[in-house]
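ok here's the first one, seq then struct tokens
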Amino acid sequence: MTIKQIIKGLLPARVLAFKNKLDDLERLAPLADRCCPVCGYVGHFDIWFGPDIIRDNTCPRCDSHPRLRLFWLWFAGAREKMVEPILHFAPERALRERLSAIYQDYRTADLSHDAHLKLNIEAIDLPSESVETVICNHVLEHVDDTKAMRELHRILRPGGRLICSVPLIEGWSTTYENDAVASDAERALHFGQSDHVRFYGQDFRERLRRAGFTGIDEITAHGPEVVKYSLLRGEKFFLCAK
């Protein structure tokens, strides 16, 4: 028996539990100051308490998450690629506030949250070829994506662009879906959240192409920017032309 084991045997259970909690908190302490390209904040980022607990995740000033910071790093040098009118599904607060201040013809869409338009992404109640740019981050994993992608393609004007991101496992050649997974608990176990219905694999690109999208470009988090802005290594979003 080691000295550590002997000491543990002598300590009351409550003291051990408290020590373990302190150890957990230490493992979640910020690693370093980070920069938020969205609002300019520099300092420690907050912990994200979700299905997984992630440190250095959220900007305490504007509430941006890694994928939003990745988007903004691209957007800062490519504003001309976002043409109005713009439709933003499930708008994130950090992006909504800033994009609405930049663009006159910028509208948000959702079924359950405060938005300009109440729209079902699987059957979008808008005319065909009526939008130039659609932003759709982490929405397609919640819905029938075959219907949703076709609808997004339909409402875009020729030459329009879909900007989207999804939970993506590049090590998988195909997307994981399972019709037998029906309950909230099962979906959380299989897909990471109770309201998710799939984890995408490399074939996400082919799904976009089947819906009619072409010229699919990818923006990926890598290199020193990952450290400076606290991005998720390898995370990406897609620029899909009609």
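and now the second one, same deal
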Amino acid sequence: MATQVLIEKNKELLNISEEFISNLEKRVDAGKISPAEVSRARIIMNSLQIELNRLQSEYETRKSELMSLIYNPQLVIDSLSGELSHSVELRSYDSLLTQLDNNPKLKKV
């Protein structure tokens, strides 16, 4: 349940990251920032992808454990559901873009 939410939020974050990197590349092409900033962003995005893979693996493991406890070969579990005690919120893409101009590392260039 919580893992499913984290998986979805990480997927959203990866999509935002891809757009962010695309915008960084445009800034590099315009000569406003160093190409190193794109490399740093890609490293962060790769770590997000690794975390997403770990979460997906953990989710599949939990489903398998649940199936072994239930032991009903005809049962198919597509997703798990329930209520979470807290929600996970990500900032919007536009919010991240506006903060890009306020990044002290990017202002140095």
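notes on #2: The mean pLDDT is 82. The helical segments are 2-29, 35-70, 93-100, 104-107.
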